[in-house]
Structures are given as C-alpha cells and as structure tokens.
Model the fold of this input.
Amino acid sequence: MDNLSPGRLKILQAVSTLLEDNAVKITTAKIAQKVGVSEAAIYKHYRSKSEIFNALMAYIEGHLLTPLNQAQQESQNTKTRLQYIYKTYMEFYEGHPGLGKIVLNQTSAETSSIYDSVKTLNAKVRSQLAQICKFGQANGELNESFTAEEIAEVFYSLTSSYALTQSLDLPSLDRIDRWVV
Done:
C-alpha cells in the first residue's frame, strides 16, 4: 500500500478494516461508507471489487515474500533467518488482522477472484521456507530427523495459526512466547 495514490490507499485500508469484522459482507457501498465517499468515487480508483482485492493481494504478497528474500540476503545463519521471518510475519498479522483472513482464505465470498493467487502465494512461501530449511540442514544448523518440507510446514503453520488468532480476535500466546515454545 506504499506506492498508491491517497484515494486508493484509503480504499484498501477501509477494506482491510472491514475484513476484521466477521459479520460484515464487503460491498462497494460498505467500502464507500467506510471511506466517507460515494460508490462512484470508489469506481474512480478501482473498476471493480475484484480489482480492489487483487491490489490487497499484491500488498500481502509483497509483505510475505520480501522478508524471505531479505532474510537470505542478510544472514547465513538459518535460525537468524527464521527468527527474522517469524518476527516480520507476526508484526504483519498484528498490524493487519483482516488481511490475515485473505491469506487463510477465510473470505471466500469476497475474494473468490483471488483464490488461485492465495494458493500460489502459500505455495511460494512454503517452498522458500523449505529452501531455507534445506540450507540449514546442509550446514548442520537444523535437525535432519525431519525433512526440510516438514520443518517449513511446522514453521508456516505457527505463523498461520497466529494469523488465525489475530483475525478471529482469539486469545493467544505473546508472539515472543510462541517462538520459545
């Protein structure tokens, strides 16, 4: 949402906030009401609700894939890489609980147009995490009792479960305590 016009940014922020409420069905009328403009004003910035969700998906993708690349560039230590990714993901989900619902595909009625993008994103994240874990195993930093894919799956499940607790506003362990466990 960083390189967007102020109008587009307000719309995406409004949708992100609306996604936090499980009872709200997202319509362009609700988005317009949240932004404080007419429905026609929404269509000045986006041609459709689908285009709005595609823009949100691009934002999410950037925030989930960029840390994977940064971690690999900034450290050769696998545990440091995983801690960085974990911290970044937790901060993202804390700051955007509504967007976590998209990653978890909990908004299928609103986001059916991006279902394949969500699946692809999750596959990319898991694949890159597995690569990081393979590197760690090759360097003797991670236990080889499990495959790199299994370690990546557990790691990703840990972050995804946090996204779920944030999106449903459930009680959960502090993210630091969660890492220690």
